[in-house]
Amino acid sequence: MKVLHVLLLLTISKIGRNVCAADSADRKLIFTYMGQCQGKEDLPIYLPDFKVEQTNRSQYFMSGDIIVKEPFPRGFHVSIDVKKCTNPSVADSCKTFLNNLSTSDICTMLDIPLPSYSSFVRSLKPPLKCPIRQTTYRMDNFQIEDTLTRYMPVSNSVSYWNVTIKGRQEKKEVACLVFQMNARPMTKQSRRN
Known about the structure:
Helices cover 19% and strands 42% of the residues. It contains 4 helices and 9 strands, in the order αββββββααβββα.
């Protein structure tokens, strides 16, 4: 999970370079799913479905584990695909927004504490750093912040997003994680709460 969230936040940072920034106070970000890609449960990095909880109208928290089944002393490379959907339940409604975003290896990412993902990384226990150990990384009650919406295109309606993050070591796939979220305009009442 920790690896996934780091990758997601890096992806959203890259999206920000390609679209106009928006005021995050105008929109609410809601994570609806975070977990392993379907059919990829045997990969060395496994992300059981995360628990996403709404504690009130404006606060969402997530908790879960990232299970690393083998060590990665030199890390691995990451690629990210982002799709925007009109209906998250219908695969045909999803269109590619950004794809084949490749990053340097995860160890380089972890060495550069960018604000877009450093709070996520700090919330993991044990700390996520290279060399990546064979262990279970735990995140408890991580608050999802609306500031991520500033990297998404402005919209007057609900926007649904699917983000797939894949890790590869040479030609071997080692991780495949999926994030589903939506960004919706804030109403006058939700701003008051």
